Amino acid sequence: MKKSIKVIASALLAAAVFVGCSSKPAFKDGTYEGEAQGFKAPIKVSVVVKAGKVSDVTVLENGDTAELFGKASEAIIKEVKDENSADALTTVSGATYSSKGLIDAIKAALEKAK
């Protein structure tokens, strides 16, 4: 019985150490720029990473329709900061190409932060 308790305890300790390893920052700190094609024109962004997490995303250039792009950028930037990732983001209805362009620009910036 004592041997099986030691095995379980060792397994739990190993799992805890493994989980602890995943707290390593996902990105290198710094400011990174990325660019991708939007609906009408290229979209250029600046992404700030602090303590391994996306802390800010700023749209530097955008030639798409302001109202539609505004809806897309607000939702997407919030999701990127919340998830600390630009993967599996959803596009905003009515601003699909602007959404995709913004997501791709953020991904391009974050590729530089790896």
Automatic annotation (TrEMBL):
**Which one Pfam family would you cite for this protein?**
FMN_bind
Cited Gene3D superfamilies: 3.90.1010.20
What does UniProt give as the signal peptide span? Answer: 1-28
User: Which UniProt keywords are given for this protein, alphabetically ordered?
Assistant: Signal
**Residue span(s) of domain FMN-binding:** 38-113
Q: Give the species this sequence originates from.
A: Youngiibacter multivorans
Query: What protein does this entry describe?
Result: Uncharacterized protein with FMN-binding domain
- Superkingdom assignment: Bacteria
